[in-house]
Amino acid sequence: MKIGMIGLGKMGANMTERLLKGGHEVVAFDLHAEARDAVAKKGATPTATLEEFAAALSAPRAAWVMVPAGEATNTTIDKLAELFEAGDVIIDGGNSNYKEAIEIAARLEKKGIGFIDAGTSGGVWGLTEGYCLMVGGTDESVAKVEPAFLTLAPKDGYSHVGPVGAGHFVKMVHNGIEYGLMQAYAEGFEIMGAAKEFDLDLHEIASIWRYGSVVRSWLLDLAERSLRPDAGFDEIKGVVVDSGEGRWTAQEAINRGVPAPVITSALFTRFASQEQDSFQLKLLAALRNQFGGHAVTLESGQQGMETLTPAKD
Questions:
Q1: C-alpha–C-alpha distance, residues 195 and 155, integer Å
Q2: By the 8 A CB rule, do 254 and 275 touch?
């Protein structure tokens, strides 16, 4: 199918490449010419304005918005809606709040434009491993874009989870769970690191736990990578950003009367990381860098993006 991609950052550029490899035609837009040129070399059709972008698509048009959640996403969708017509579809693949997705869908419905909220997980590894997709929208809208979903996701990694709002809601809870899992690993490794009498090799322990252990997981694979001697772990500070989804998950738990002490505690630990530094906070920062390419703060005070991402095995 022919599909548009707006936003060619870490996620958008890799998703564009995966779609191209899957045989789709991709019309691409980004504010930065370098980003447009990079995907053009992969086979995408670059466009310099949203007007040019909309004109390059074929009816019924489908555009995937992959820009930072909040004002950037909402403004982009509103501008795109002025250029699209009834029967076209807009997909928001960012970490937007599910309540905003419901409001946007209601606005677009008045023009007959479909809206899909696609919770997207996979980070910087999605190009090769695929993206887990949690999709919300009407059956009609989803059917128009499903070929792209099936290409982006690994086998059994895509689901139409419900109506508009459901996709972002499920992704929000997914990220809240992620907070708790990462926190548990970080605390456990700090406890082992504090047992000085055993002089434990934390990298080796992370490595063996990946085989046969009941706590093995992809996050543990990334912990092993972060703790490698050449990964630069000692150079980072334990500053862990709260990007929103964990906070929203905790708020939803409170609003719905659901006890969620693990997720809430992990969220508060991220708040505390702004004021203190410890091994577990370093590991949390390193894990976020490994799966999402998020910047880490180095002891030198500089920001680093690739510091802790060695070449894939």
A1: 42
A2: no
Residues forming the active site:
171, 178
Structure tokens at 310: 């060695």
Both tokens assigned to 204? 């080796």
CA distance 136 to 115: 9
* Residue bearing the bigger pLDDT, 274 or 273: 273
Tally of CA atoms within 13 A in the half-sphere of 156 that contains its CB: 0
Which residue, among 124, 88, 105, has the nearest Cα to 292 in the 3D structure? 124
- For residue 296, the model assigns a pLDDT of 66
**Do the Cβ atoms of 6 and 29 come closer than 8 Å?**
yes
Instruction: Give the residues across from 132 on adjacent strands.
Output: 121
Q: For residue 60, what are its two tokens?
A: 């019924």
Contact 144, 220 (CB under 8 A): no
Instruction: Report the half-sphere exposure of 205 (CA within 13 A, side-chain side).
Output: 13
Mean pLDDT, residues 251-263: 97
Least Cα distance to 288 among 224, 253, 240, 246 occurs for 240
Digit-coded pLDDT (tens) for 136-167? 999 999 999 999 999 999 999 999 999 999 99
Say how far apart CA 170 and CA 157 lie, in whole Å. 14
H runs (alpha helix) in the chain = 10-21, 33-40, 50-56, 71-83, 98-109, 126-129, 139-152, 166-194, 202-208, 218-226, 245-256, 261-272, 279-292
Q: Which residues of 153-189 are buried (b: 16+ CB within 10 A; e: fewer)?
A: beeebbbbbeebbbbbbbbbbebbbbbbbbbebbbbb
Q: What's the token pair of residue 269?
A: 């630990």
State the Cα–Cα distance between residues 296 and 302, nearest whole angstrom: 8
Cβ 70 vs Cβ 98: under 8 Å: no
